[in-house]
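Quick one:
INPUT:
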């Protein structure tokens, strides 16, 4: 049995979403895999009290769920675009969870469609601090963002899904540098901090492990940028069996976005399902002024009767 430690960071705004993310992780787990789950949050008791949480903990693929209270080291961290200081919690992982030398981190606005045992076991991070998927660059003008930030190359990674070499990070005191940089006003907050501090010590993962809205748009319009070195076959594999990351302000639970149906199907299957929450959200979608009557009827059929 393979045990994989994985960490999530969340706040009171994403309690249900955290549960759905974990449910998808456990549902897509390999037969001989268990996850040792850590959640960095200030709302542990509130989360544990949520209906269905005990069932998540009792899942055979769940070794345990630990709630860790964040400390005050990032209390004055820069907030922008409505993203709260909880985004910086991932920078505390090497210090808060010293029992593991190698840990996966994941955002909670994610749905898993694959097991992580292969990527956890096969990626050799001996000479790297961190592993992640290169952030999708939509146009040539954005290609040099990493260099403009101060990195030595443009391999700028998305921080929504990471594998951390905590041992090397602690040895080289990179985590202390993260705390210092957290006081600066970076546009992409902790993501900029990770890219700048890890620089050439970043290992690039396949797009399958962090398939974003930008990747989806490129796939759907056949405009895959050669800068990202991703072919359409890799994109298709990511779309079918990957880790879907709902980047951007519009999420499945607050509006209509790419692949929103995957999140809602997972929600319906999960032990956290609540009929009132479900109906209220669906009602808000079909009441949107920009939808035609035909569009509203299609959504009602899709969500209430699960016809695809």
């Amino acid at each position: 049995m393979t045990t994989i430690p994985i960490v999530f960071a969340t706040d009171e705004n994403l309690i249900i979403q955290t549960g759905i993310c974990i449910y998808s992780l456990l549902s897509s787990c390999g037969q001989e895999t268990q996850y040792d789950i850590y959640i960095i949050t200030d709302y542990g008791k509130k989360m544990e009290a949520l209906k269905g949480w005990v069932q998540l903990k009792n899942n055979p693929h769940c070794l345990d769920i630990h709630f860790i209270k964040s400390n005050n080291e990032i209390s004055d961290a820069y907030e922008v675009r409505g993203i709260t200081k909880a985004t910086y919690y991932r920078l505390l992982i090497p210090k808060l969870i010293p029992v593991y030398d190698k840990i996966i981190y994941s955002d909670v606005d994610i749905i898993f469609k694959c097991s992580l045992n292969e990527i956890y076991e096969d990626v050799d991070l001996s000479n790297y601090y961190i592993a992640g998927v290169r952030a999708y660059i939509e146009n040539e003008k954005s290609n040099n963002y990493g260099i403009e930030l101060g990195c030595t190359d443009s391999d700028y990674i998305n921080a929504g899904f990471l594998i951390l070499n905590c041992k090397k990070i602690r040895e080289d005191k990179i985590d202390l540098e993260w705390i210092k940089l957290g006081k600066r006003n970076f546009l992409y907050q902790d993501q900029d901090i990770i890219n700048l501090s890890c620089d050439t010590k970043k290992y690039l993962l396949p797009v399958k492990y962090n398939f974003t809205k930008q990747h989806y748009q490129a796939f759907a319009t056949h405009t895959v940028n050669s800068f990202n070195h991703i072919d359409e076959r890799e994109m298709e594999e990511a779309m079918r069996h990957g880790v879907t990351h709902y980047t951007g302000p519009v999420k499945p639970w607050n509006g209509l976005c790419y692949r929103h149906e995957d999140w809602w199907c997972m929600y319906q299957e999960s032990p956290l399902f609540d009929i009132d929450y479900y109906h209220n959200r669906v009602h808000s979608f079909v009441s949107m002024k920009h939808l035609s009557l035909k569009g509203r009827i299609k959504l009602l059929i899709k969500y209430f009767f699960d016809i695809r």
